[in-house]
Amino acid sequence: MSVQSNEKSLQTSATPLGRDDLARLVARDIAPGSFVNLGIGQPTLVSNYLTEEQNITLHTENGMLGMGPEAKGGEIDEDLINAGKIPVTELPGASYFHHADSFAIMRGGHLDICVLGAFQVSATGDLANWHTGAPGAIPAVGGAMDLATGAKDVFVMMTLLTRDGASKIVDACTYPVTGVGCVTRVYTDKGVFLTGPDGVTVRETFGCTLEELQELVPVPLKAAPAERQDPRAS
Fold first, then answer.
1. CA gap 202, 5 in Å, rounded
2. Does the pTM exceed 0.85?
3. Element (H, E) at 129
4. CB-based contact 64:90 (threshold 8 Å)
5. Coiled coil: which residue ranges (predicted)?
6. Which residues, in sequence order, are CB contacts of 104 under 8 Å at separation 6+?
7. What DSSP string runs through 75-123?
8. pLDDT tens across 109-152, in order?
């Protein structure tokens, strides 16, 4: 499959990104003043890299607005956790409310962005992140479907490849779908992808060229103008 672009290389890092570098990149891309939900897994790391100047309000579906970074050491309060049961801090002005009210925020279109993990994302932005059909797995969609359909933008954080080396960006999802056409950006260790009705555009790559990335991903890739700097930069 050939790369559908004559653009110069989009590579902005000499090596693939680690989890923290990826979280830092996602945090940097969140617009100031946004209301954001961070899903379980990799997305929870994003809270550690948001700055005070961004004025981001974090929502967690177990009933809190104004969540701060992950709690460490003496900061830990076992009654103050996020939806993934990770101890977190609270920021000035934080509020707490009933689970039903929290879901009303999600379903009512009040979140600007949610950041979720995924098993698969299709070329047109379909999301599969709650069940693979693996023996012994407990299927539990939780609030993911509410976030996927209720947030104005859905960002996905994941490794590009499975443990078997298969791409998680696919032409069509083979796992049960959480939301249809909802994903706008996919952040992976090997690149950032923009998805939608017109297919997949690569914003930047990490540790590989666009041509090498195309060999890993079974859908046509188009290049966006290369304007980014190394994501590890402060």
1. 10
2. yes
3. none
4. yes
5. none
6. none
7. G--TT-B-TTS-BEEEEEEEEE--HHHHHHHHHTT--SEEEE--SEEET
8. 999 999 999 999 999 999 999 998 788 877 778 889 999 999 99
The residue written with tokens 């299709």 in the block is 122
Both structure tokens of 152: 């104005």
Helix (H) or strand (E) holding 26: helix 19-29
Cα–Cα distance for residue pair 176/107, rounded to 1 Å: 20
Q: What is the CA radius of gyration of the chain?
A: 18
88-101 burial, b if ≥16 CB within 10 A, otherwise e?
bbbbeebeeeeeee
The SS3 of residue 200 is strand
Bridge partners (DSSP) listed for residue 205: 11, 191
Kindly tell me the burial class for residue 37, based on how many C-beta atoms sit within 10 Å of its own C-beta (0-12, 13-18, 19 or more). buried
Where in the sequence numbering do the catalytic residues fall? 61
Q: Which residues contact 50 (CB under 8 A, 6 or more apart)?
A: 27, 30, 56, 58, 69
Question: Does residue 230 register a pLDDT over 70?
Answer: no
Backbone angles phi, psi at 214, to 5 degrees: -60, -30
211 and 3 Cβ atoms separated by less than 8 Å = yes
